[in-house]
Amino acid sequence: MTERRDETAEPRVPGPAVRPAAVLFDRDGTLVHDVPYNADPRRVRAIPGAAEAVRLVREAGLRTGVVSNQSGIGRGLLTHEDVRRVNARVDETVGPFDVWLYCPHHPDSGCHCRKPRPGLVSEAARLLGVRPADCVVIGDIAADVLAARAAGAEGILVPTAATLPRETAAEAEPAPDILSAVRRLLTRPCRDSVPCATDGGPA
User: Pick from 38, 31, 45: which is nearest to 1 by CA?
Assistant: First the structure.
């Protein structure tokens, strides 16, 4: 579910734009339509363009992950098994992804992992064997890009009906949709440590 705090992301000071080593996606509202506190895999519906976006990232030889707030667990509305079953369906529908991470905590818990805090992004980077600075996070609300920047990564906002107007206005270059966001990344030159894939397959 799209879970927010009343915050607006501060734009990242841009450096040379190069292709990331990994792309991390928010789940609800970014990869699949947001169904609040969804425990039913049958209700998973992909956002248009999401499966193609993930496919392009993987074909480019980049690592992939999902970082998601799932406070329904902390609120007593979901179990870990509920979330894992829905995640598995998302993975089948628009994935696969190299790593899945979610924060189960209530918003008032003060945990380090709930976006906009950096814990999920930092841990995903660690598991993928890359630096947070070599990651891009794509999401639909300010908490996603704030979490990215707090970890030292880049955040790209893809506004939806759930995105507050001030969140969109705060971003210098929001993307119109998830596929456009990924295509923008893949037009960047490759970094020395991450050679570009060739012949349409993974590097």
Answer: 38
